[in-house]
Batch of 2 targets.
Target 1
Amino acid sequence: MSTPILHHYEFSTFSEKIRTALGAKQLTWKSVDIPGMPPRPLLTPLTGGYRRAPVLQIGADIYCDTHAILSALERFKPNPSLFPAGQEGLARGLGFAWERQMWVPTIGVLVHFIGEHIPPEFIKDRKEGYLGIDISKAAMAPQFEEHVQFVRAQIAWLAQCVTAHKYVLGDQLSAADLACWQTIFLLRKNCPPEVDALLNLGPILPWYERIAAIGHGTHSVMSAEEAFEVAKAAKPMPITHIAAGGYPEGISVGSKVSVTPEDNARVPVVGTLLACDAFNMVIHRHDDVAGDLNVHFPRLGYTLAKA
Ligand SMILES: N[C@@H](CCC(=O)N[C@@H](CS)C(=O)NCC(=O)O)C(=O)O
């Protein structure tokens, strides 16, 4: 099986979640640095248009969204597991709920502190191609108090978990930790130290530092061109993790479908449905240059429709 290739950019906090997962699993991986906003001319043909970061590539298999990526890494190297036995559902659902609820309030707090340094073209891209809202400091200022209250209330229950045990679900690091941690990482990395008091982060700092110390595993740089060549030379792997017959919503395998994020960056990716269960969807795409590709998405957060 070929080496995992992560397409990501340094200041992407969802990418930091995956870099840390790669570290927790002590994996060796290739790092492709992508721009912080489109165009991403050698990545888009691999994903079929999915525009968010990060994206994981293993040969000609392309994994979109951190939730599909974590599941792929778990299959690639099961131990140490990020889905503790008996708590798989919690690890999955809690992480998803946290990120869905926390993303905009976190950005609200972030831009309060550093908004004046964000270039106008970035604000424009995030409004027009990603979040659909104006994330400039001025536009988010009226909701600042509300966002702070929201984040503090979430941190309060997180603190109950991670002061009672080492990690959110107990003694073992899980996907839920990585999801909660990454939004706080974005703030602590970029805001002045006063953000700790503002959000009452004190009680969670030992947990925060424990995860920050995990690192990113062993990685080396790969160019986008080299990653593209890897995809071109490879064939998608057989799908062994999804049982046949679990077709959702009356859409059968072999149908032409679109898969679209339901929250933001709503660019549909079109292909042929290969497999689908309650957790994962795989579509096949043929790119004129890259060849045959299997593109993987989580079910959580994506809409599957007949194309
Ligand atoms: N649900 C997605 C969210 C990913 C996400 O929103 N990533 C941010 C970067 S931290 C992004 O894609 N921003 C827009 C972009 O880079 O084009 C996931 O878990 O991967």
Target 2
Amino acid sequence: MTTSLLSFHQLRDWLCCPQLYAYKHLHMLPDYQHQAEQERGELLHTLITQESLGQSIQPPPDLVELWQNYLNGMLPFREYPSHSEWSYFFQFKTKGMSWGIHGRFDLLVYLPDSLLIIDWKTGSHSLTDSWQMEWYAWCCHRLRSALNISADLPIQTQCIYLKDGRTQKVLFQPTELEKHEEEFSKHIAQLNPKEYAFIPNPHSWQQGSWCERCTYQEICPEGIRYCHERADFAV
Ligand code: SF4
């Protein structure tokens, strides 16, 4: 049985729209709409890694505010054992398929009563952030022995939005994470690139279509049709 690699971002893109998944992960078309934000995020993560290695950081002028919010967000956790930029990989089986689930946690903190996953966000709040945090908590649940945490320790997640310092926290008990595993397993099982045609099938959100926020709107037939319909409607 061969193993296919799968990250949260791949699964998210597949569920948002299989055509979007194909553009981004099979044809490797760049995500132009979010490019600047991604570059800022990558730079900030490089600075965070350097800081965790004890280097002194002078952020560029456009990152000064974000950097200060990072330092403030980090303050309560410095006294606890932690892993920064921790890459993970584990195997997961669905019917007839084996998956190599991989990704990276920004920060894992061993608190006295839970394991805390911190995700630093350089952009604005996204509709898929909560789902990403459920995924991260589930991944830690699968990795309990590698992380050296007990089977009944709760796992909590905290998104820290560095633009304004806001946070979004969720605490997961092990039983909830078992339920999330069932849900993720169903979604992952649908993602079989050998059998699926990558047809446009945009997920709907808040009574709209994912095409509304898709970076590939101008090259996708469904995206172009969607834009025209909206233009006609606006006239
Ligand atoms: S424009 Fe719409 S249909 Fe086309 S890839 Fe994007 S979300 Fe899918």
